[in-house]
């Protein structure tokens, strides 16, 4: 699935099954909530925190997909083509960071 296809599929789902988009502020809050769920898993799986019994069945991939879904909703609502935005962002990073990371002593 391409990013463009994902934006279309999410839009179709929202306008049929989901009835309508939540407003942008609500979706921003939901995005933060979903990112928090990813952070919780990361802290327990890769950090020092331990899992609680209720956390043992968590699925990192599914939580990341939730983040992507809500981000796509916000892009659709605000008229952003995520394919174009990512392409432009990669150009920016390639120019701005061409030598930055190679010259970072902390990364060696």
Query: Beta-strand percentage?
Result: under 5%
Rg over CA atoms: 18 Å
| Contiguous runs where pLDDT drops below 50 for at least 5 residues | none
As an assembly, this protein is single chain
Structural category is mainly alpha
- Taken from the alpha-carbon principal axes, the silhouette is flat
Count, helices: 4
Distance between the termini: 36 Å
The string of secondary-structure elements, in order, is HHHH
Strand tally, please? 0
Name the helicity range: 55-70%
The largest sheet is: none
The average pLDDT score comes to: 94
Describe this structure in words.
- Helices cover 65% and strands 0% of the residues.
- The protein is flat, with a radius of gyration of 18 Å.
- It is mainly alpha-helical and 108 residues long.
- It has 4 helices and no strands.
- Helix 2 (24-45) packs antiparallel against helix 3.
- 6% of the residues are buried.
- The longest helix has 22 residues, at 24-45.
- The N and C termini lie far apart (36 Å).
- The model has no long low-confidence stretch (mean pLDDT 94).
Concise synopsis of the structure shown:
With 108 residues, this protein is mainly alpha-helical. 65% of the residues lie in helices and 0% in strands.
């Amino acid at each position: 699935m391409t990013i463009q296809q994902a934006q279309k599929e999410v839009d179709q789902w929202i306008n049929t099954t989901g009835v309508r988009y939540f407003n942008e502020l609500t979706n921003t809050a939901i995005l933060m909530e979903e990112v928090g769920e990813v952070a919780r898993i990361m802290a327990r799986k890769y950090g020092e925190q331990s899992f609680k019994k209720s956390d043992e069945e968590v699925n990192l991939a599914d939580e990341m997909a939730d983040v992507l879904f809500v981000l796509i909703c916000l892009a659709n609502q605000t008229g952003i083509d995520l394919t174009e935005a990512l392409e432009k962002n990669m150009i920016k990073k390639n120019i701005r960071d061409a030598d930055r990371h190679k010259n970072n002593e902390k990364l060696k």
